[in-house]
């Protein structure tokens, strides 16, 4: 089991998506994050373990190398693709049997920001906990959040940002929502975001991770 988790982390770290993927060249023809994730789940490894002790471990390593300029955007993109592909296998395990949704949650990564792995994870966990999730993707403008909100007036809005430079775009979106639909509950999150920042821009909830967000929603809704 430990070996499978190590394989998963390694495939994320080096951006090996699946057996067909020719990247990285020295892993050509070998299994990737796709196959190892499926194998681990089939072998009874818990989805939570696959996520935290396999996928996230690999992504943490990429993050450190990226910061130190030891890998560059194309390699990180391959890691992201491998991570998103592997996460597809986790989805059914996080899907609850609830028929009546707890509410509607509109989520997106704010405009200017192309990081979607964390946002996808949050969306997956919310779905698994009985929320109807409308995922607007990444690089999402205020207008798109508002159009969707007008179509789903009782929805909670969740904004994700991974860059210190795009955090300020959260503020613009919050301001627009407050102008047009002041009673909307707004949650913010993403690595550089803090509770202080949340309060400063007038959002309602901050959570460092999906579990924290679920707890905040439990209290607020
Ligand atoms: Co980028 N990147 N990146 N990157 N990237 C970071 C974020 C960075 C910290 C790397 C570094 O320098 N160490 C750095 C940001 C520095 C800063 O602003 N302080 C950075 C940079 C600089 C950049 C570029 C500017 C690089 C360049 O072009 N020179 C560029 C910007 C592009 C853009 O967005 N306009 C860029 C590009 C990219 C890629 C496209 C190559 C790729 C993204 C691919 C994709 O997402 N599809 C990428 C990646 C993968 C990363 C790192 C390596 C990993 C991010 C990630 O997915 N983490 C990252 C370094 C790192 O984080 N160690 C880095 C895993 C994910 C599960 O965690 O997203 O934090 P996270 O989500 C968590 C929580 O934050 C929380 O829950 C999730 C699960 O626990 N959460 C929420 C997230 N959203 C939430 C919303 C909520 C609640 C909780 O409520 C609504």
Give me the secondary-structure topology.
Elements: H1 2-14, H2 33-42, H3 47-67, H4 73-94, E1 104-109, H5 117-128, E2 132-135, H6 142-151, E3 156-160, H7 164-180, E4 186-189, H8 195-201, E5 205-206, H9 210-220
Parallel strand pairs: 1-2, 1-3, 3-4, 4-5
Helix pairs in contact: 1-2, 1-3, 1-4, 2-4, 3-4, 4-5, 5-9, 6-7
Residues 59, 62-63, 66-67, 73, 76-77, 80, 112-119, 121-122, 158-160, 162-164, 187-192, 207, 209-210, 213 line the site of CO-5-methoxybenzimidazolylcobamide (B1M).
Describe this structure in words.
Helices cover 56% and strands 10% of the residues. With 221 residues, the chain is α/β, with parallel strands linked by helices. The chain folds into 2 domains: 2-96, Methionine synthase domain (Methyltransferase, Methionine Synthase (B12-binding Domains), Chain A, domain 1, Orthogonal Bundle), CATH 1.10.1240; 104-220, Rossmann fold. It has a 5-stranded parallel sheet with strand order 2-1-3-4-5, sandwiched between helices. Strand 1, helix 5 and strand 2 form a beta-alpha-beta unit. The chain is globular. The termini are far apart. The mean pLDDT is 93. CO-5-methoxybenzimidazolylcobamide binds at residues 59, 62-63, 66-67, 73, 76-77, 80, 112-119, 121-122, 158-160, 162-164, 187-192, 207, 209-210, 213. CO-5-methoxybenzimidazolylcobamide is lined by residues 59, 62-63, 66-67, 73, 76-77, 80, 112-119, 121-122, 158-160, 162-164, 187-192, 207, 209-210, 213.
